[in-house]
């Protein structure tokens, strides 16, 4: 699991209530971190071939396929999950050929776009993902103190309104994990679902494309000197991971309940149906308060012992920002 | 639906019916020619009882409804039951591809559900054959041998699809009255479930899937469900389908007469692949949002088919309106299939009942002569 890594927040100074931040010049768009999450693969390959749509004044924007072997085989990963591989331990390990493919790949990505935690690291990395869960468009934030990202997410939410794009904050000390995007100063996860693994849906592809367009527009405006006043952003903060009920041999003995299936982000109250056994019995949620579940029935999480995640709603304050 | 068309298919289905359909072969052939004589529909076809039935799951290891359903059936079978002695039908429950199930993949070396051609089953053994070919031969020994008198009477092979197909029966034959009657029974018992009968439209000689090992067989395909996921709504539907099928078998074996009627059958005509980059072979478009999730809709000439990544709409260029299914099935990208097109026709199905013991013995003598 991710340990808290030292992060340099270089160039941030508070001037009144507006933080002056260094320009966001080096930007990357990662696709294929999981080789069977097709929207990101298709978008990045499209932009590698013809990058016209992702050009923005004041920024160098690099589209990049992070796990080409997994993309080639259309699997999530070859040896180990790349999106869990960017731990301090892996990145600083020496030696080489005997390491799992994804660990070697993480080291290479860290060399190209990092080093993680250093002033040379890329300013922003967008990491494109799909989920089998009915999460719609979700932006993933790794730090509640990243005012640049908070302002970007606020901008995106307003730009696509009335369509919705929710923000998932994963700052939990135990549940946080070392993502490929964590190499950058401002890591942004983009998760769009529902889409089966290995499938490319037009509507999901378009939704992801639109979100990225607004994200890059924000970066361009910021780099040109626009000031973004203080704002608040509603986020869903990761609270708990809930596994499937299992028997003594570790086999799953119940499914996500039909009342919960597809209900990502809707309130789950104590006593509400949560799982249904194969012979039809209901197992209720027995937490102490209302939570907002997400990643409900994500295929890739069966092996990670997760049926869904609970979150708590919170409002974060972002200081005003402007390029230094 | 032209009579010319039927005559062509009729000759084929006449051959398919031989040796399988008991005393009423001539009537059966006449019925599938489209001339529906009310008296013919009411005359019963007598077929041998189904004493051995197999339910198979996990033929593709990441199609989870069948995996969990077979596991539950195995659990129930381990419990001693008072009904055991009375049950004339033996039920075999099989997890077809254990290695793929364990890995959470469709297959390990090659698609198991393409390994059941007679050529593959009986072919020479190479030095290191793919796992699935070895497994296919094991399953053929367990449930077959395919084409032989000792094969199980009925194979029901459980599958999921990412396409929005509801509950489908997929069968090689459009005159296997057992499968068609099971389908009619499920339609009656589950009237709210979206249910279709899909006919592959190829001869039995070309059959390649697990359900072709039994004397009768079909795949029960449910979607939409992502691979690697078990959805409770899909599981409950599949479980109900399997239970009703087993109920029907019990009723059939007990001598019930099932009256004839009509079934709409979708016969596959052709597949359409994605547009692809000439150099990399990567797809350059996705199924159009107007077509996505609209399985069993009629695709008309010029209807939108694909949306390229640069936003262009590509349209259906065929001249015949056809029904679209398997729209955007995840495992078919590597097979070069974006969707499959089918014709629909209304099939007359005769009444059937099980042969009595006397009739079975009489058949036994004549079928020896035929063989």
Describe this structure in words.
The complex is a heterodimer of chains A (324) and B (371). With 324 residues, chain A is an alpha/beta fold. Chain A has one domain (9-236, 317-323): Aminopeptidase (3-Layer(aba) Sandwich). Chain A has 6 helices and 15 strands. Chain A has helices at 38-49, 68-73, 88-92, 101-113, 147-160, 202-223; strands at residues 13-15, 18-21, 26-31, 60-65, 124-130, 136-141, 165-169, 186-193, 231-242, 254-256, 273-277, 282-284, 292-294, 308-318, 320-323. Chain A has a 9-stranded mixed sheet with strand order 4-3-5-8-6-7-9-14-13. In chain A, strands 1-2-15 form a 3-stranded mixed sheet, covered by helices on one side. Chain A has a 3-stranded antiparallel sheet with strand order 10-11-12, with no helix packed on it. In chain A, helix 1 packs across helix 6 and helix 5 crosses helix 6. The longest helix of chain A is centred in the middle third of the chain and has 22 residues, at 202-223. Mean pLDDT of chain A is 94; it is low at 1-11. With 371 residues, chain B is α/β, with parallel strands linked by helices. Chain B has 2 domains: 45-78 and 87-260 and 350-362, Aminopeptidase (3-Layer(aba) Sandwich), CATH 3.40.630; 271-333, Single Sheet (N-terminal domain of TfIIb), CATH 2.20.25.160. In chain B, strands 3-2-4-7-5-6-8-14-13-10 form a 10-stranded mixed sheet. Chain B has a 3-stranded antiparallel sheet with strand order 9-11-12, with no helix packed on it. The longest helix of chain B is centred in the middle third of the chain and has 22 residues, at 232-253. Chain B is globular, with a radius of gyration of 21 Å. The two termini of chain B are 36 Å apart. Chains A and B meet through helix 1 and helix 6 of A and helix 4 and helix 9 of B. Chain A: InterPro entries: AspA/AstE_fam, Aspartoacylase, AstE_AspA_cat, Aste_AspA_hybrid_dom. Chain A: Its EC number is 3.5.1.15. Chain A: Keywords: Cytoplasm, Hydrolase, Metal-binding, Nucleus, Zinc. Chain A: Zn(2+) binds at residues 34, 37, 129. Chain A: Residues 232-312 form the AstE/AspA barrel-sandwich hybrid domain.
